[in-house]
Design goal:
The protein has helices at about 1-25, 35-45, 75-80, 80-85, 115-120, 135-140, 145, 165, 170-175, 215-220, 235, 260-265, 300-305, 310. It is an all-alpha fold and about 325 residues long. The protein starts with a helix and ends in a 17-residue tail after the last helix.
Length: about 325
Amino acid sequence: MKTLITLVMLCGFLYGSAYAETSNAVKPQTRSPAQALDSDAVCTRCHDETENKPILSIYQTAHGNKADTRTPSCQTCHGESDTHIKGNPKENKRPQPDVTFAEKSQTYPPSPTQVRSGQCITCHESGLRTHWTGSQHESQGVACNSCHTVHTPKDRVLAKPTQPEVCFTCHKTQRAESHLFSTHPIQAGKVSCSDCHNPHGSIGPKLLVKNSSNETCYTCHAEKRGPFLWEHSPVFDDCTNCHTPHGSNNSPLLKTRVPWLCQECHTADHAQTVNSGANLIDGDVTTINGTQAPASLNPRAQSNARACLNCHTMIHGSNHPAGAKFNR
């Protein structure tokens, strides 16, 4: 009995020691708000309201909420920067901080991209940012502060109306497309880039939020998902076979006008019979298997009586028993 009691006490001691070590390992920072501000005062005694950029406005953001023990200090992001704080009497210019973020600063050159992003990823690695390492943006030398502005209460890239302008700084082709005749309501502020793309990395193509373009489109266009009794192969394969998502002069976001878009695949349809309902005389001018008209003649069959969607209205798929041709 005595041996059993001793064994139980020993197990309890070992368990308690292990628990204490675990608790100490995950114990959050216990600084009071006053202590946190005193830590920042090492920097803010010089970097005050006289700075060209509003440095102190960080206290209007989540990064400056000292009541939260997870809130970083200046040194958490910029490093201890001892040489910068103490200065070097042999140099007229104060040495650079350990980590400098400003890309357009005239005082110090920015730290390498990996260093800047590494400081942010230390805390912001979970959730939507788990695929940052190796992503297209990271591989192209884009740092977190290339898009985000920390020392400001309103980060433009986090607000839906202003986010596209941040992305369009680099993606100028998409900027131009967003001003075409048929677009998603990007300019109206109802759709932003991050509704479809995850700029921090994705397992899908083009940094899409889902695994494919179709899954991403179905997030809003659920009625196109199906399943359908009669499936249209290019639609089932990829929405971008027919649509261009950032903008087009063909409604609705089509790459090419109908019937030319349809005839990229259906080259011989309705072209076998002269004077058929979908043709004028010499209606086979649009085929590749039939006789081609001389180049000097107008391809009238291609220009007239070819409003494909007048009849084939269920082009995304149909459940109607007579819908093999996607008719209305």
